[in-house]
Amino acid sequence: MPGAPLLLDGLPADWRSGLFLGRVETADGPSPILVEGGIAFDMSRVAPTVAQLVERLPLSADQGERLGALDTLDLPLLSPIDLQCVKACGVTFALSAIERVIEERARGNADAAADIRARLEERVGGSIRAVVPGSGQAAALKQALIEDGVWSQYLEVAIGPDAEVFTKSPVLSTVGAGAEIGIRSDSTWNNPEPEIVLIVDASGRAVGATLGNDVNLRDFEGRSALLLGKAKDNNASCSLGPLIRLFDADFTIDDVRNAEVELTIDGPEGYRLEGSSSMNQISRDPLELVRQTLSEHHYPDGFALFLGTLFAPVQDRDEPGRGFTHKVGDVVAISTPRLGKLVNPVVTSKEAAPWGFGLAALMTNLAKRGLLA
């Protein structure tokens, strides 16, 4: 369950002035923390879970127990969420829509992807970037693509009225900064998905943001969209962190809308891949994605919402035309200046630490600590 102790190079450049929320592993068990003025406070006596703490915002960090300066904190850093549902939006960028159509047409076969990619980008690349999802122009483009024989379920969620929203992983299953992330051992085509993740309270209010890696198995999803669960939800396949930056006068939803998310992958054989995702190119506004996630449903513990990514790795790794796939030993780093850096090494899901600390274990731990009064 624990990740690595908080590393200084994972902190945002202005960590001394922002307001942050996270989780650490204390000697007694997992505890939510608030960081204000660069000082970390254990908030478990105020609210024993992050979900409960979010519902009490805004509040002063000094209501908790002072742990010390954040840069000297020597406690294992956990994923910064706990009881929140983990939701994700897919195909929110034009390029990601094209890549999903490629997966579908190639049936998960990386060898067939390059030719399909070239033809699709020529046919829909410019058009799909220019339309507003759900608009009359989008409906006209859809009809043209149907007539041209290149329509896809992925284009439907890219430019249609309804966003793709799915459940990424179970409550408490996410891992934090420094922890190993997992890919299925029987996957041969997969990649990270560097994203910004909004933290939303029970009423639907976005209270802050963090970084996330929505690890994806392209071969599984490409064979059939009905395999999305197997492509997305595996042991250690979802990481978040290092901390949640709470919205305030200096950090707002506009910082999310304009963020540049950088990604590097360093392989054990010396391979290096660099990429980025510009949030200002997203097809649907982040708060519109929150609205569509809420729909008519109720999330009493709130939710974390992955906003999707522009990043789609096509850089060859081993053989020309085969594109990118992970290898065990890769180190993935996702960063943006105001949220910091999320770093995770890659292993197979069966080699990653088993997920054993679930809801029953958390309730037992909190009861033992006298935090469920």
TrEMBL record:
Keyword field: Hydrolase, Metal-binding
Entry annotated with the keyword Hydrolase: yes
GO MF annotation list: hydrolase activity; metal ion binding
InterPro entries according to UniProt: FAH, Fumarylacetoacetase-like_C, Fumarylacetoacetase_C_sf
Pfam family, one: FAA_hydrolase
GO BP: small molecule metabolic process
Protein family: Belongs to the FAH family.
Name this protein carries in UniProt: Fumarylacetoacetate hydrolase
Biological source species: Sphingobium chungbukense
